[in-house]
Amino acid sequence: MKRRSLITLLALACLATPASSRAEDVDGRWMLDFDSHERGRFQLTVKRSSAHGNWSNSDSYSIEEFRGLSIPAGRTPVPARFELVRDAGTIRFEGQLDETGGSGRFVLTPNRDFEAFWKSRGYDSLSDDDYYTFTMHDVSRKFLDDLRSLGYDRVSRDHLVSMRIHRASPEFIRDLQSLGYEHVSVDSLVSMRIHGATADFIRELKELGYDRLPVDGLISMRIHGATPEYIRELKSLGYERLTSDSLVSMRIHGVTPEYIRDLKSLGYERVPVDSLVSMRIHGVSIEYIRQLQELGYRHVPVDSLVSMRIHNVSIDYVKKTKERLGDVSVEELVSRRIHGRRYDD
């Protein structure tokens, strides 16, 4: 499984640097770890410094993306030279490798011809920092042309890099468009990729009756774990056709299928969603209800349970009040707490 980019972006600050930065060498250090679980892939970390700040990036790559790179046999380090050749430039790596990985130094050779293409798309000059970032993340002619054909013209440098880092690819955009999501903003595309609001996720929701949800709603569902599996479990418990907002609220406040099942075992069936959320917000736990039932309070309405928790009618307070006064109604317990009366008043 690909590990996502871990970006320390003073890099995006570098994207805005002027073309005069070409007077500086674009070089730095690299560290490579071959993936022991997925042969043919590796994690590459690169670090560089310039007058504009520090830049660090770690991402997963395929060995096939690099010329001259192979996995050495054994743990004895051997000299290594390999290249990353992209439209925007070529990065040459030198150092040492063994079968687990290695380290060394790199240097960028910009492809100045790329700038003519870049300018033909309405952009201004590229700095060497731009060349470096575009080379590392493969901001290519094809990527720009594909985006343009999909209605994304003159996307900013920062957004282009962010799209490449988070795999907001033309293929992803085409999938979304086939599902009716046209003209999704770049920020939303990136956020969807970060949080896993994929085309497959959208298709699963559609099968469950959730068609054409707003992009923000899809992202929120992914952030808070309102998954198709969660929806199916709720449906099996009798909660059907819930809104996406209700699903998210239930997830935020910990209304789990287990909580609903435990409530049912205590005699609370088909509790409305708003009440379930309120119970979780105010700490009406399964253990709290069990202890109340053990003290003789067996059919306390949900609203009363919430009121008891809001006004801090603790189990200890109930026990001591009963010991002092005998049987006391829920309403009186709440009233006593509202008026600040102790159990022995």
Oligomer: single chain
Strand order of the largest sheet: 1-4-3-2-8-7-6-5
Please give the alpha-carbon distance between the first and last residues.
64 Å
What is the H/E order? EHEEEEEEEHHHHHHHHHHHHHHHH
Give structural notes.
With 345 residues, this protein is an alpha+beta fold. The protein has an eight-stranded antiparallel beta sheet with strand order 1-4-3-2-8-7-6-5. A hairpin with a 2-residue loop joins strand 3 (41-50) and strand 4 (53-62). Helix 7 packs parallel to helix 9 (215-224). The model is unreliable at 1-23 (pLDDT under 50). It is built from 17 helices and eight strands.
Feature tags:
345 residues; alpha+beta; 3 domains; 8-stranded antiparallel β-sheet; 44% helix; disordered N terminus
